[in-house]
Amino acid sequence: LHLRSAVGKGTTAELWLPATELPIAGRASNSEASLNRKSARMTVLVVDDDALIAMSTAAMVEDLGHNVLEAYSGAEALKLLESGAIDFLITDFSMPKMNGAQLARTAKELYPELPVLLATGYAELPADSDPELPRIGKPYRQDQLAVAIAEAVKTVSSGAGVRALAAPRTAAKG
Fold this sequence. Notes:
Elements: E1 2-6, E2 10-14, H1 30-39, E3 43-47, H2 51-63, E4 67-71, H3 74-81, E5 88-92, H4 100-110, E6 116-120, E7 135-137, H5 142-156, H6 162-165
Parallel strand pairs: 3-4, 3-5, 5-6, 6-7
Antiparallel strand pairs: 1-2
C-alpha cells in the first residue's frame, strides 16, 4: 500500500497485489464450465405473468446454456408442455386464473418426472401446495437459480436423460 497526498491535488492510494494464473478454489475453469453447460443443455419453460420477470429469468437461464421458451400464463404453459419437448419448468407462483402450484400439479400429472421449480416471493404458500415442490425465493441471482435447477433435476433424475424422464404419461390399454 502506498499513499501520496499533496495540498490542492488530493490523495492517491495505490494497492499492488501479486498476479496469479492459478484457478480460484471451488470454481470450475472457463473450459470446464463451458463443457458442463453443453452436456447439461435442456429446454426450459419459464412461466411468469410479468413479462419483465419472465424475460429476466429467461436471460439468466439462457446464459446458463439452456434453450428457453416463455409463457405468460398457466394455460399457455400447458399448451407448450403438450409438445413434449420441455425438459424443465420454472413457474412463478402468483399468477391469475392458474397459479404456479396449480400449474406444477397439472404438469406433474401429465409428466410425472418433469423437474419443476416454483419461484415465489411469498414466505408461505397455501396449505394445498405440494411441500416437496422445489422453490426459489424472489428475488434471486443467477448463481442461486443455477443451484436450484441442478437440485431439482437431481431429485427426479436417476441416470436417464431428463427428456426421457419427461415423456407424457399415457393411459394403459386393456
